[in-house]
Specification:
This protein has 318 residues and is mainly beta. Helix content is 5%, strand content 34%. It contains 3 helices and 32 strands.
Length: 318
């Protein structure tokens, strides 16, 4: 499905987009996925909306694409309430300014390796922003809110693995290259099997607030990373508050405002209802409850439930 450059102000809603049925996809081996699956929804025109669709058995989920080094393309795109399940590259992508990606889900990313790339398989992310055109035109005013990204959960297809040679699993929420500015990243839940669960490169004047970021069992590493853009310029002017994460790697953002963040480490049973089953709602009596500030915080949580003072740390209000 594609919204081309001439398609503007259109809506795709409440649809099912599949490369094949679940029964057929369950019989696919590596090269079947390479040859038979493609991108579910591509948006090139501006101000289009992709709402409440179910996307399954694809290479990529929903792509908001860029058409020029000046940043033209799918500006003003809205991607809300969609699910991407059983896929092998990026679940969501926004390479343009002014996009809204909220309350979506992605789960079950497979380690498909196209022939000839065995030494360096494709880069995979639950959400990814990059330019790919060599420019340094900033990507601005992007909102990532209330998305739930889990690398694996439930029944998987039997012919294709989640990992290739014990690695090359999907990363989480990644904004690469830089510069980026005026982003809102709030109430997201990220649980993947690599350390780079939230990687923000060259993110400036942005809010990273009330996210929950921990490894997907049985992995042991996961972090919120706020670091230099591709040319080495450090990030500036960011706000990092109320996040609940396995670890933080934000030293490059020397002037960032940090407060009310909690490093979980490996104390998952202290904080979460059922960590191994990917239920990261807060457990009664845990230290995140009432430990947040309402400064710069969203007034609702990842379930779109109202927050009440004193706010809780992480994507979910108790």
């Amino acid at each position: 499905m594609q919204f081309d450059s001439g398609a503007t102000n259109d809506i795709l809603q409440n649809s099912q987009v599949r490369a094949a049925s679940d029964a057929a996809a369950d019989t696919w081996y590596n090269n079947d996925w390479v040859n038979r699956s493609g991108t579910g929804i591509v948006v090139i025109g501006s101000n289009n909306q992709v709402l409440n669709n179910q996307i399954r058995n694809v290479r990529n989920g929903v792509m908001l694409e860029r058409t020029s080094t000046a940043g033209a393309g799918a500006t003003g795109g809205v991607v809300r309430g969609n699910s991407v399940n059983h896929f092998w590259e990026d679940a969501y992508r926004c390479k343009v300014s002014g996009c809204l990606v909220e309350y979506n889900s992605a789960v079950n990313s497979y380690a498909v390796v196209p022939p000839g790339t065995e030494a360096d398989p494709p880069h995979r992310d639950m959400f990814q922003s990059y330019r790919g055109d060599g420019s340094f035109t900033p990507v601005t005013n992007v909102v990532l809110r209330g998305n739930v990204f889990i690398s694996r959960m439930g029944t998987r297809y039997s012919k294709i693995p989640f990992q290739y040679n014990g690695k090359y699993t999907i990363q989480g929420l990644g904004a690469f290259d830089g510069p980026y500015s005026n982003w809102t990243i709030e109430n997201n839940v990220v649980q993947v099997e690599v350390g780079l669960a939230m990687g923000l490169y060259g993110m400036n004047n942005s809010r990273i607030v009330n996210n929950t970021v921990v490894p997907r069992y049985p992995a042991v590493d996961s972090e919120i990373r706020l670091t230099n853009q591709k040319d080495g310029t450090p990030p500036t002017g960011d706000i990092v508050r109320n996040n609940l994460a396995h670890s933080f790697n934000t030293a490059a953002a020397a002037d960032a405002q940090h407060s009310n963040n909690i490093t979980v480490g490996t104390s998952y049973s202290t904080y979460f209802v059922n960590y191994q089953s990917a239920d990261l709602h807060l457990k009664a009596g845990n230290p995140a409850i009432g430990a947040a500030t309402n400064r710069d915080a969203p007034t609702i949580d990842a379930d779109r439930k109202a927050r009440s003072a004193p706010y809780d740390v992480g994507a979910y209000e108790f």
